[in-house]
Design a protein that fits this description.
mainly alpha
Length: 132
């Protein structure tokens, strides 16, 4: 775990940059849905929901990028991002293998690794004073 603690800035930069790529869903919602889940939703309601979904995920990525350079918010950013990713993983896996053959399967694998790393950091730094 000391490797994770020592390299958390780089971990947060990489995971934040990767997470931020979901801004694509805010820009091209139908294409993002097709590539991620293999199907699209139609109608103006779907456009709003998917664009919002993409923007929120991109904001989590931006929070990780911000947190990488601001040690006092490492734990907060990692906790929020980890919780968000864990919810996504749970929701996708609740549908069994339905979405795993698309990019959602790749996202689940990558997000699972991120959640484990984030949790390891949070456990390793629990109760520590963080320098600014």
């Amino acid at each position: 775990m000391s490797w994770i603690v020592g390299n958390i800035r780089w971990i947060m930069l990489a995971s934040g940059a990767l997470t931020s790529t979901m801004i694509y869903a805010a820009i091209a919602p139908q294409e993002a849905l097709r590539s991620t889940f293999g199907a699209a939703l139609e109608g103006p309601h779907a456009e709003v929901v998917v664009r919002n979904w993409g923007a929120l995920i991109a904001l989590v990525g931006a929070m990780l990028l911000y947190g990488a350079f601001n040690a006092p918010v490492h734990r907060f950013a990692l906790a929020v991002a980890g919780a968000s990713k864990a919810v996504f993983i749970g929701l996708v896996l609740a549908h069994g293998a339905l979405f795993l053959g698309h990019q959602a399967g790749v996202a689940i694998a990558i997000d699972s690794v991120m959640v484990v790393i984030f949790a390891a950091y949070l456990v390793a730094t629990r109760g520590r004073e963080v320098a600014a």
